[in-house]
Amino acid sequence: MVRDVILRSSDGSLSASLPRVMTDRLGLAEGDRVVLREMPEGILITTLDTDSIDAMRFAREAAARYRVALRELAK
């Protein structure tokens, strides 16, 4: 589903209202968190996936901890 939304100024930021039909279908409610990703095509808005966030945190910590070994393996 593709919808146009209008950006509005709110406290120095821009906000967009999501159409009710989309929020109902996706199970989103006021106060829910979403993730914004800049893509070559524009902005991708996805629901917050805590499993992915935990996995990325683990990967960053492992990369920092084993930085030297990973650098050697990359040669």
- Give the distance, in angstroms, between the N- and C-terminal Cα atoms: 45 Å
The DSSP helix count reads: 3
The helicity comes to 40-55%
State the shape.
elongated
What order do the SSEs take from the amino end to the carboxyl end, as H and E? Answer: EEHEEHH
**CA-atom Rg in angstroms:** 18 Å
Largest sheet: 2 strands, antiparallel
**Poorly predicted spans:** none
What fraction of residues sit in β-strands?
25-35%
Describe the structure.
The structure is a single chain. By secondary structure, this protein is of the alpha+beta class. It has one domain. 40% of the residues lie in helices and 27% in strands. It is built from three helices and four strands. The chain has helices at 20-26, 50-65, 67-73, and strands spanning 7-10, 13-16, 34-39, 42-47. The strands form two sheets. A two-stranded antiparallel ribbon has the order 1-2. Strand 1 (7-10) and strand 2 (13-16) form a beta hairpin. The model has no long low-confidence stretch (mean pLDDT 89).
List the helices and strands and how they pair.
Layout: E1 7-10, E2 13-16, H1 20-26, E3 34-39, E4 42-47, H2 50-65, H3 67-73
Antiparallel strand pairs: 1-2, 3-4
